[in-house]
Specification:
It comes from Marispirochaeta aestuarii. GO terms for molecular function: DNA binding; DNA-binding transcription factor activity. InterPro entries: GntR_C (IPR011711), TF_FadR/GntR_C (IPR008920), Tscrpt_reg_HTH_GntR (IPR000524), WH-like_DNA-bd_sf (IPR036388), WH_DNA-bd_sf (IPR036390). Keywords: DNA-binding, Transcription, Transcription regulation. There is one protein chain. The protein is about 70% helix and about 5% strand. By secondary structure, it is mainly α. It folds into two domains: about 5-65, Winged helix-like DNA-binding domain superfamily/Winged helix DNA-binding domain (Arc Repressor Mutant, subunit A, Orthogonal Bundle); about 70-205, Four Helix Bundle (Hemerythrin (Met), subunit A). The protein has a three-stranded antiparallel sheet with strand order 1-3-2. A hairpin with a 3-residue loop joins strand 2 (about 55) and strand 3. It is globular and about 55 Å long.
């Protein structure tokens, strides 16, 4: 395997939870598995650090990043800024092929139910967000989104354990598609932002229930922090 192939393979293993959040990435074991020396493995690990899905702890080595509530909040704030503009541009540009793909995706989303939501919901959701980004036709937005998307996949791995979060996301995706196809950029952007805020709150409330008043909040409630 080339170094780039190893990078892609290791990234995929992290994003599909072969290596779970917080798990140590032992250089010696990776060298043996991929049959390469330590120098290129370290270069790959540092690349994943830059992508936000691996962290390096002094004197301890490399670990799959374990997302705390602060990181999850920051990820969704960044996504709201990026994807809010992207969905507006997608709606305004009105690319016929993108609209056809969104129409087909709408049918796929409607086919989801409690029996397949946990498995298929995240896949359909990623396809929806990727299609919106592609439809924006903004190269810089897509470049920025690429890094955020890796960390977003890690939040998706958390959210998929809640059928209620995935179901609500599905409903938002359908509504956003409808607003795009109807040519309403204001509503499209508003719904996208609302969707991302709601998903963020759902993850925090479901999986981080102990977080009520964040550190450094100066006495403000979490609701006030989320609405800042």
């Amino acid at each position: 395997m080339t170094k780039n192939e190893i990078l892609n393979d290791l990234r995929e293993k992290i994003l599909t939870e072969v290596y779970e959040q917080g798990e140590s990435l032992i250089e010696r074991e990776l060298c043996e598995f991929y049959e390469i020396s330590r120098t290129p493995i370290r270069e790959i690990l540092w690349r994943l650090v830059l992508e936000g899905i691996v962290e390096q702890k002094p004197s301890r080595g490399f670990f799959v990043r374990k997302l705390g509530w602060e990181q999850i909040f920051d990820i969704f704030q960044a996504r709201e800024a990026i994807e809010g503009m992207a969905v507006r541009l997608t709606c305004q540009r009105g690319d016929v092929q993108i609209f056809e793909r969104l129409t087909a995706l709408r049918k796929r989303l409607f086919s989801l139910d409690d029996t397949n939501m946990a498995e298929e919901g995240p896949k359909a959701g990623r396809l929806f967000h990727e299609t919106v980004m592609e439809g924006s036709s903004n190269a810089l937005l897509k470049e920025i989104y690429q890094k955020v998307s890796y960390m977003a996949k890690m939040t998706s791995n958390i959210a998929r354990h809640s059928v209620s979060i995935e179901t609500l996301s599905r409903d938002y995706h359908v509504s956003i598609i409808d607003s795009i196809l109807s040519g309403d950029p204001d509503k499209s952007e508003s719904l996208m932002r609302e969707h991302l805020r709601t998903t963020c709150r759902g993850i925090l409330d479901t999986f981080y229930p102990q977080v009520f008043v964040p550190r450094g909040s100066n006495g403000k409630s979490r609701k006030e922090i989320e609405n800042r």
